[in-house]
Structures are given as C-alpha cells and as structure tokens.
C-alpha cells in the first residue's frame, strides 16, 4: 500500500492521512446524523465523537471497521452521559442510513448478530481507552461565556444577533475533526465565541484585558486564530467530501467536487453506496474472516481482534 | 436576509468581504436585494485583522448566518433570582476586563432602560424625595457600577406610603439598601429617576418586591464581584471552576433553555446537517413503530396457526406477546378477541373488538366478529333477564352492520318481549293504583267526619273551662293503672322516639289484631264516640299511631299522607283488641307505639280494604301474642296522657268534661271485648 520512494512515501503518507481524515469526517458526519435521528442531546453526541476520535488515535483504520466503532461509540456515549439509547434504535437508524427507504429489520439472526457486534465493540472501545470515558466538553464553558458576554452587550443588539446559535453551531461542527481531542475545552469554547463575534462584526468594550483573555488566561491571539483556521477547514472538507448532501438550492454554489444527495440516482453515488451496503451488512464477518481465516463466529472474532491488538 | 446584520458585518470587515460575498452569493435571490445597500455602508476600517479564510467562510455561509430564521426567539419569562446552583453565576465581565470608568459609565447609560431594576444605598433624605447611590443592577442587566457612583433620585410621589399616615420618607434612613425600578432616564444629562412602585418595573420583573432589602437579598453576581474586587488573585477561570454550578451535569440543558435553543435540534453550519434534509421516516421512533408492527404481526400469524390447530393456550401466549411488542395492534386484538369468543369470555372479546375498531374503524373482520359476539352476548343477557342491556347490544350490532340479519331478528324478538313485560308491569301498577284509590275513598270519608268533630270541639272549648287537674284525674280514672301508665307514658315518649321501628312492628301487629278482632264493631263507633271527645292533636296522633303499622305493612305503595279518620279507626281497633284480651302486660310497647303514632300525625294514607285484609292475616299469625291487645289498651291510655301533655291549657280545659265521657265509653268497649273473648 505504501509507495517505494521516500518522496512518494511522504506524499503517500500525507494522502493516507488526508484519506483517513476524510474517512473520519464521513464517519463523524454519520455519528452526528444518527445522533439527530435518535434525538441525542449535544453533550452525548460530543462524547460519541470524542470516543471515536480517541479510539482511532491509537488504532488503525485498516483493522477496525469505523462505522461499527461509531455505532458502539454512540451506544457507549449514551450510557456515559445518561441518555440511554437502545441498540434496537441504533441498528434501525443505521440500517436505514445505508439502505435508504428500506423496511425495518426483522427480528432474525442478522439482527442479533449486529446487536452482538455492537456490544462486543463497546467492550473493545473501553479497553482501547483504558476505561477513561469521562470527558470535559467545551459546551458548558461556551454557555457560561455566552452569558457573560450577553451581559456586556446591549440587549437589543443581542436579541437581533444570533451569536449564541452561531457559536454553538460551529462547536457542533468542530466534532467532525479531531480538534476536540487535541485542544483544551476552554480554548475551543473561546475560539467558537470569537469566530461568532467576528462573523457579525460585534465589538465588545475594551478594557485592560481582552474578553478572551479573561475567559482563558493561557491562550494567545495566535492560538485562537490557528484553531479558527482548523475549524474553517472542516467546512472546506465538507465541500470536498463526496458523502455530503445537496448544498442549498443554488447550483452555482457548488464547488468543484460533486456533492450528491444520497437518494440521487447518480452512477457514482450508486457505486459508493454499493460498497457501503456490503460493508455494513457483513462488515464484521468480512473483517473477521480476513483476520481469522479459520472461520470463527463473527462476534468471537471481534473479541479475538481485541486481544490481538493489545497483546 | 437580515439587512442590518449584513451591513454590520460588512462594515466590520470591509470591502474584501463585500466582494467575496457578491461572488459566493451571486445565485442567492435574497442577497440581491441587500447588495445595493451594502456598498454604501462601507467604513474606512483598519485592516490589521483581515482574515481571508474567515471572510470566505462568512461569504459561503451567509445564506445561513444571516437568515431570519437562524436566530431563535425566546419569550420573556418571569425573572427569578439565580441561586447559583443550576449554573455558575459570574460577576460582571466588565470587572474582570477592567474596563475604564468612562467606558463603563458610557455603556451603562447606553444600555439601561425604563423598567430595569437597580439596587442602591440611600444617600440622603430630602423633603422632595430620596437620593440613592447605585450599587449594582439586578434582574438581568449585570454591570459593575458601584464605583461609578451614579446618583439617582426617587421623588416623593414614587415612594409608596407605609400605611400609617406618616411622611412616607420617614421610613427610610441613610444607608438603607433599596431595590427600585428605573422610571426615567436622561441619557444626555446622565440622570436617572427611580421609583419604588412595582408598576415601574418591566413585565417580567413585576413580582419582585421593591423597597428596603437586606444584605442577603443582594444579587449573587454582585456579592461574588465584591469578593473578586477584594482578592485580586481570583480570576474568572478560578471562580468558574470553583463554582458549584459548573459541576452540575444539567447546566448545559439549563443554559440552553435560558438562551432559547433546543438541545436535540441544535443548529449547524454544515450543509448536510440542515434540518430540511432529515426525513421524518428516518427517525428512530418512526422506524421502531413500523418494526414493532411487523414483529407483532409475525407473532399474530403464529398465534393464528396455533388457534387453527386448537392449541388455545399457545395461541393466547402468542397474541399476548404480540400485544406486548405493539400495544393496540389491530390484528392481534382481533385475533385475541376471536379466541376469547370461542372460549366463551364474551365480555373480554367485546372489549378487544371495540379497542381494535377504535384504532382502525374500517377493519372488516373486527366488525363482523364484533356483531356476532354482541348478538351472542345479547342472547346470554336475555336469559338472565337483563333485557335493556341486551337491547343496547343488539342496537350496537345493527349500527355496526346493517345487513346482519341475526341481529335485527334478535332485536325484534327482544323488543316484543320487552313490550310484553312492560304491559305486565303496567297492569300491576294499575292494580295497585286501584287499591290506592279505594283507600282514598274511605280516607275521604274519615276526613269529613273529623272536620265535623273539630268544629264541635272548638265550640266546646270556648264554652267550657277546665283545669289540668281534672284532666289528670280523668286520665287516672280511666284505666286500671292510670298512674303507672301516666308515668310510663312519659318514658314511653322518649323510648318511642328511639325505638320507632319496634313500635312500628308492634303497630302492625296491633293493627292486624285490631283488624281481626274488632272489625265490625269498630266501624260505626268512630263516627259517634271516639272522635267527638278527641281534639285535633289527639286525633292526628291517634291516627298516626294507628296508621303506622298499616302504612308499614300495606300502604307503602299508596304514599305517605295521613288521614285523620283512619287513625281513629285504628285506635278503636286497638282498643277493642286490648279489651278483648284484657292483658296489660305490655302497655309499654303500646304506649310507645301510640306515642309514635301521635308524633307522626298527618302524614299517612291508608288503604283500608287491603289493610283490613292484611291485618287479619297478620293477626292470625300473631294471635298468640298478647302484646297487641295490651298495646292497644295501653295505647289508648297513652294517647289520652299525651293529649294532656301536648295539648295546651285551653285545650286541656276543654277536655275534662269530654274525657269522662270518653273514659266511660272506653271502659264499656273493653268490657265488651273481654266478654267476647
């Protein structure tokens, strides 16, 4: 899979990373979409994304099926953040994600297999993360900062400017990338708020300290800018990713890469979905078989994989 | 697109943003309207913070960012003092930022509005009002204004009186902490007028109490701010982290609610995550429902198989399982209903069918089965003689399915049957009414007799004058043991009131025995003798006594109105019975009975013919007992006693001369009866 020459090697590595990050982007998009359909609150959804990112910081995409990990991350996050989700619902939504407009699954062997694999993978994630699954999220910081900033602004200016909505939207979208695990929650919160205020051109009164210095004493303007750039790159990635939905109503807005609706019966998408369908329905078994050619049961093989990784 | 927002943004970022915007949003019809204005709004701005990426982002997402629907509106809720537990209440940001004096003063006067709440300390009390130096704001606006030393005036007309007619200003002293509402602002001259009336507050603050407050009532953001001012090492971060509200796991939900944002549908700027792309069918709850229905159907199918092979227990298990998976599943309910009907629990079957029809009114099988079961159940009820309920069921069956012949036939049969039974009832009722009528006719006769007697008595009362002694003597002379009866009558009166029932029974027996023994004798006597000496009250009392047993035994159907003459008849019967037997053992009971009769005077009707016949029957039954006889005797005596007690002096005066006659006559009758026996 790697190129032979060093230069090509670097490029290949970069492209792998880019491919990987695209993959991660897609899977995180899957997590967020599923979360919306399951009625997940913002914090459990954030936990699910963080679990996913943290897992793949130390694991390889080649070994573990990312969509399965994502489903298990959702399940585990629901437990951690006290918004319990049923595996039946998760399986239903995910199945429909990959097989649009299909009938719900029947209570047969396939259903139980899927359920088993989710539960097994959950254990796998826990082991991979050393059972440290309690995370601090930027949400509460951001909300407190928003309240403080609100008190400083004129109430009419506040009521007509959607600062809070934009800041929260940017924060939610930041989970498509791995910045949630690479930065402190307070920094992320400050950056989102900064971005939001900048977007609308709102200016806060100046004092001895800048407002963001007050909220987070260990951050500099440059750091904020860096994080902000990362955030904005995520939006670019969406435009490039071919697993996006239709962008608005104006064809002129489309960027170079094709962005297609999942239901759009376009040839390239069909191809893409065929791959997905197959991977989803037999992902565990195929992975298991590739790793364990002696043909063990799918669930057992996932456990073996765990041991294989750790051992 | 919000024009003002765009203008603000463009003016902040400058020309570069405008050009990118035009490029990216060229297809957006909304943008075109706004574009012309924007070029005019450009300011000359220092370009140190130019950020092309940001501008590109703004331009690309402008259709979302500046859409009117992007901002969520939250209706103003009633303001509540924050306890600092739901989330961390922080001191004003100005304080941490160390915003300059002038700036703070400026923004305070810019942002304060009529209806805001402020807290301050009384500076001086003049005759035209109070001067208050502001300490802090409250009720939403959070600013650090203590050192600004903003002086406000609360004019005397805005100080509510304390109610004891003194000068209202005398209630306030220098140094008091006051909570007041901002009444008027002069932004140019930086003057503020406050008021202590609740009406000056904004709508959502109305409930807050204005006036003097304690230190504890000071808002949390102020008290925490004080701590920060004292201790310079307290930074925002430290304060936030150490606050209890930050560790509250639900603070995110609470604060999102405060800001008016729905947590399960948080906004996103990603194109793919816009809410319009989410179809209802993809949501978990919808899929789950569909799935439940299909799983339940599977169970129902296997249940039906069991049913066909007559494995009823298994079938019921399958149906119950199906209903657990999907409550109110129509197929499962219909199948279970059919199973119940086959087994014979028709009521349960009907319930299941009804429930199924509620959920799906067009289910053919449900209707069919329901009709059949209703008819069957109707048949069952008919046998149990619950005709009306059965009729209701047949009607329901017909309303469900007009063509169901069995139901209509059964209904017709039932209706015929009902009519027959109704006719029977009518006949019975008619008979009873006739009896009542015959009773009435004799009662009417008696009434007439009594009226005549009353008139006679009145005349006699006026003419005669008597003393209570004579009446008492007459009472004593009357019977064998009149003194005892006299005393006993008093006791009897009390006992009578308590033991009404037993006396009623006694009366019945009495009446029956009287009926039996003295029927023919009694008839002529009342008109001539007994009625003449009795006054109104005594007559009615007697009547009530006599009627009681009659009413109890026979006359319930005819109602409860009392007939005077009837009573006297009964009394006589009683008297005759008593004399015939001559037993005085149980006068007590007699007296009791008679007392009650006297009490209930005027409220009964008798059916003479029926009562006669019934009395005779009863007397045959109870002939062995001597009570009745003695009762009747005693009753007589008691009646007389009561007459004496209850009647007024005038009446008592009227009695004596009559009483002697009465007593002689009584004695005669009794002697006759004794002789007969």
Word description of this protein:
The complex is a heterodimer of chains A (311) and B (677). By secondary structure, chain A is mainly alpha-helical. Chain A folds into two domains: 2-128, Cyclin-like (Cyclin A, domain 1), CATH 1.10.472.10; 139-238, Cyclin-like (Cyclin A, domain 1, Orthogonal Bundle). In chain A, 68% of the residues lie in helices and 0% in strands. Chain A is built from 14 helices and no strands. The longest helix of chain A has 33 residues, at 6-38. Chain A is elongated, with a radius of gyration of 21 Å. In chain A, 45% of the residues are buried. With 677 residues, chain B is α+β, with helices and mostly antiparallel strands. In chain B, 62% of the residues lie in helices and 6% in strands. Chain B has helices at residues 3-13, 15-24, 29-40, 52-60, 62-65, 93-97, 101-111, 220-230, 236-242, 251-259, 284-308, 312-325, 330-343, 346-359, 364-383, 387-400, 405-463, 468-478, 482-498, 500-522, 524-528, 530-533, 536-553, 564-581, 587-599, 608-621, 627-646, 649-676, and strands at 117-126, 129-138, 151-155, 177-186, 191-195, 211-213. Chain B has a five-stranded mixed barrel with strand order 1-2-3-5-4. In chain B, strand 4 and strand 5 (191-195) form a beta hairpin. Mean pLDDT of chain B is 73; it is low at 467-485, 511-528, 549-624, 626-635 and 643-650. Chains A and B meet through helix 1, helix 4, helix 6, helix 7 and helix 8 of A and helix 1, helix 4, helix 6, helix 7 and helix 9 of B. Chain B: TPR repeats lie at residues 330-363. Chain B: Residues 464-484 have a biased composition (Low complexity).
